[in-house]
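Re: that backbone. Tokens:
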């Protein structure tokens, strides 16, 4: 299923890896990775409200056991769609839960936390919906419609 909303790239001028990450299967099959150095500013892809932030971790690694150590920012948009920005650096969020953000606003800085696989520092980005009963397994990524730039 494609997104209803159109999204702007959260990072400009980066190499985009679509299916190189071993994590991008099943419910994450439409996720994308932007290959960037740590400390790169990350922009909101669309107007929305910040609904979740984790930024207390300083741990990252190659295998899936590091997944729970990943920092991230999650934003809710119109049409029940959410975007997520993962692997941000420790204390790397410039927003907090409840903040209203605008398209293109810098929301944080990239890092190397969580399950990085073999890709090195990168930003994991996806757009998803939640289905009842709203558990983590009810998280479905959508094929992103990018805004023409
Ligand atoms: Zn990824």
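Recovered sequence:
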């Amino acid at each position: 299923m494609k997104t209803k909303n159109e999204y702007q790239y959260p990072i400009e001028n980066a190499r985009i890896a679509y299916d190189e990450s071993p994590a991008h299967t099943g419910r994450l099959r439409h996720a994308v990775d932007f290959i960037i150095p740590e400390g790169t500013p990350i922009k909101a892809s669309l107007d929305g409200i910040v609904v979740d932030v984790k930024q207390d971790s300083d741990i990252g690694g190659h295998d899936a056991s590091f997944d729970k150590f990943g920092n991230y920012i999650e934003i809710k948009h119109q049409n029940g769609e959410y975007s997520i920005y993962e692997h941000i650096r420790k204390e790397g969020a410039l927003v907090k839960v409840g903040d209203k953000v605008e398209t293109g606003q810098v929301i944080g800085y990239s890092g190397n936390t969580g399950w990085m696989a073999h890709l090195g520092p990168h930003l994991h980005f996806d757009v998803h919906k939640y289905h009842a009963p709203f558990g983590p397994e009810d998280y479905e990524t959508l094929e992103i419609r990018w805004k023409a730039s």
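The first strand starts at residue 2 and ends at 7. The chain has no helices and 15 strands.
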